[in-house]
Structures are given as C-alpha cells and as structure tokens.
Amino acid sequence: EDSFDEDCDYLFKAVLIGDSAVGKSNLLSRFARNEFRLDSKPTIGVEFAYRNIKIGDKLIKAQIWDTAGQERFRAITSSYYRGALGALLVYDITRNATFANVKKWLKELREFGKPDMVVVLVGNKCDLGQTREVGEEEGREFAEKEGLCFMETSALENVNVEEAFLHMINKIHEITS
Ligand code: GDP
Ligand code: MG
User: I need a surface site. Which of 26, 65, 70, 124 has the fewest CB within 10 A?
Assistant: First the structure.
C-alpha cells in the first residue's frame, strides 16, 4: 500500500480528537479496515489510516490521523492539527465527563486548527443505550449551538460510522472545490 497516490485528485487530512477511550481508534479501524477491537489498548499502533473515496468523478484520498494515546496526557500538539481540513470530535454517550470535555477540545481545535475546518461532533457507543448518560438531544443541541455537524455512532455495531466520516469528507470537498 502506498502513501502517495498519483491517481488521486485531492488529499485531505482529518483528525480524530476527544477523551481517552471514547472509541476514536475503533471508529478509524472500522472506517478504514472494517475492524473492531474489544480490548482497550490505548493505541492500535498507527498514526494514521487512508481511505480512497470517489465523489463525482474525483478520487479523494482521505488521510485520517489518530492519536497514539497522547490525549491521556493532554499532550496533543499543534503539529497534529496542522493542515487538517476536518475533525471528528468524539465523546462517549455513557460517560458525561467525556461530553463535558468536548468544550475543551473545541477550544483547542479553534486555537490550533484552520478556522473553516469541518467538525463533526460524534456521540459514540450508541449501542450502550441502557447506560446512557448523555441524551441524543443534548448532543444535537450543543452541536447546533456551536455550528457543528452531529451524529451518534457505534463502532461496535457499525452504526453511522461510514456516514460520519463520509459526511465530513463530502463537506470538505464542497468547501475546497
Ligand atoms: P480511544 O482511546 O478513543 O482510541 O478508544 P478505543 O477505540 O481504544 O476504545 C476504547 C474502548 O471502548 C475499547 O474497549 C473499545 O472496544 C470500546 N469501544 C469503542 N467503540 C465502541 C462502541 O461503539 N461500542 C462499545 N460498546 N464499545 C466501544
Ligand atoms: Mg486510541
């Protein structure tokens, strides 16, 4: 597999951010390779993954960056955000604290990221409805207030994962083309 593809029309960088253990790495492995891991390794050992997407007659190579566990120490640096056109900001619907921290992540994103970055707020683990702490409406309202797109997902059950990434990539394409 090559990292540079002469046949692609655009190369987009996007980043995954959010608290530790919300499911960022599993969302990415689901999107890039249709894989899910039950164990909670802080990292799956990759820094980014690629997927090619066709929009109209254009071939887009999406390069999605994942943290290698640095979010545990709030040690994500400006280089992580550099050149990123989109972000999935992820929280866990069963842990209110991860939703409360979305504000901090957004602040960091606005400090280091491009002003017109496409941000999708993602409430992950929607398969765990019995232990839900954050209502879907809460997520949606917050997203609306902040001008973000919003989606609830399950990396485990493969719900809305494709949709969340493709929504972001389509919006980036709209803005940049
Ligand atoms: P990260 O630290 O944000 O990258 O989170 P991980 O992807 O490593 O996931 C943390 C834990 O949550 C792991 O045990 C995963 O198996 C689990 N997990 C991730 N996504 C989901 C999901 O959609 N549903 C459920 N039930 N568990 C998930
Ligand atoms: Mg991870």
Answer: 70
pLDDT, one tens digit per residue, over 50-99 is 999 999 999 999 999 998 778 887 778 888 999 999 999 999 999 999 99
* Residue 144 in this model has a pLDDT that exceeds 70: yes
DSSP character string of the chain: --S--TT-SEEEEEEEEESTTSSHHHHHHHHHHS---SS--S--S-SEEEEEEEETTEEEEEEEE--SSGGGGT---HHHHTT--EEEEEEETT-HHHHHTHHHHHHHHHHHS-TT-EEEEEEE-TT-GGG--S-HHHHHHHHHHHT-EEEE-BTTTTBSHHHHHHHHHHHHHHHH-
| Centroid of ligand 1 to alpha carbon of 21 (angstroms) | 6
